[in-house]
Amino acid sequence: MAKGPLQRSFPELDLDTFWDDSDYAMRAYVDGPPSDGLVASVEVELGFRLPALYVALMRLHNGGMPRNTCCPAPKRTTWADDHVAVSGIMGIGRQKDYSLAGSAGSRFWIDEWGYPAIGVYFADCPSAGHDMIASTTETADPAASRRWSMSTRKVDYRVTVLAPNFVSFVQALRPEEDYDVED
């Protein structure tokens, strides 16, 4: 990985092992590096400024499916007693279905599924749209501090804070084997 602020912020992130570049991931999520113009236009379209470290990571690998797909949760979720599963992280763009401004991007979940407009929905879960992960803000100010939260459609769009920032969210991801996933 390139030296610099991203590596200092994600000291244990190895891009060669973080992403699962399956055929499906490449087809549905992964796009080319976003230009400054594309980042700006997606921010305008979504109404929120994207976190700098999220943008930096997307410039190196624009969206995809992480190998470690489980994020600890402070309380029971619709997925499990102690975690939520992540299907993929949306890249910055419009071309891929699962990109922030794609056909199954952030606005889709707000406009079509009724998710609250609390921020940018940037990751989906394997619950077929019943859970989404968003970068949320506590105020209407797009530059305000963010939290990385799961919103649950199945339970009146309950919001569960998963991490205080994007770095913490990414670093919290664990392999499925770390959890007892038997029903």
What would you note in describing this structure?
This protein is of the alpha+beta class. It has a single domain (14-176), classed as SMI1/KNR4-like (3-Layer(aba) Sandwich), CATH 3.40.1580. The chain is 26% helix and 19% strand. It has 7 helices and 7 strands, in the order αααααβββαββββα. The chain has helices spanning 5-9, 15-18, 23-28, 36-46, 52-60, 106-111, 166-172, and strands at 70-72, 83-85, 88-89, 119-124, 131-137, 146-152, 158-163. The strands form 2 sheets. The chain has a 5-stranded antiparallel beta sheet. The protein has a two-stranded antiparallel ribbon with strand order 1-2. The longest helix is centred in the N-terminal third of the chain and has 11 residues, at 36-46. The protein is globular and about 45 Å long. The chain starts with a helix and ends in an 11-residue tail after the last helix.
